Amino acid sequence: MLEKFNSGVAALNRGKEEEASLLLREVTASSPGLVEGWNALGIALLRQGRLDDADGAFSRVLSLSPRYSPGLLNIGLLRLAQGRIEEGAAYFSRAAELSPGSLAPRVNLAVAQARAGRFGEAEETLLAAGRRFPGHPDVLYHLGTVYDRIGNRARGIEAYTAFLAASAGSRPLMEDRVRARLRAWGESP
Asked: Do 50 and 25 form a contact (C-beta atoms < 8 A)?
């Protein structure tokens, strides 16, 4: 079953969500206690937009292992996709507590806070993440978006410029958006 699980994860990594979900359904049917299998299946279903099915898979993850940080993170992403922002934020916060060495729950918590209009909290979450993960492009990008949303152009330019330097070509779509925003502000990226 390990081979099928690995094939399912590989398909997921290649963007073949339908193939991944078929393989991972076989895995979870034969190994119903495999938390990682349910989590990967949930991701595949979430990426396909099958939110109810993804909810079922992630609920199974949490019933098997309530402290499984990747599952908490992913159900948080599902809640954001469902428009249930506060629930998503609660899952991200819990995942961050359980995984102090992981950046993703903190960045996603800040995204949820910003979507809820709590920009001050989002800024504080990102600044704290920046202290823990200095110069990380994801932190800098989201700080730039928070500053942009609250109209603090000077801090937005600072964060976006630092993002471009830190990213250095590794996030081309985000970099294109940032360059366009900086140009709109009359800044030369």
From this structure: no
Task: Give the span between the Cα atoms of 43 and 46, in whole angstroms.
Answer: 5
Buried b (16+ CB within 10 A) or exposed e, 24-43: bbbbbeebeebbbbbbbbbb
State pTM to two decimals: 0.91
Q: What is the pLDDT of residue 2?
A: 85
DSSP 15: T
CA distance 98 to 91: 11
Answer yes or no: are the C-beta atoms of 181 and 148 closer than 8 Å: yes
Q: What is the mean pLDDT of residues 44-48?
A: 97
CA distance 101 to 2: 27
Burial of 52 (0-12, 13-18, 19+ CB in 10 A): exposed
Tell me which residue has tokens 């993170």.
Answer: 73
Residue spans of alpha helices (H) in 65-171 = 69-81, 85-98, 104-115, 119-132, 137-150, 153-167
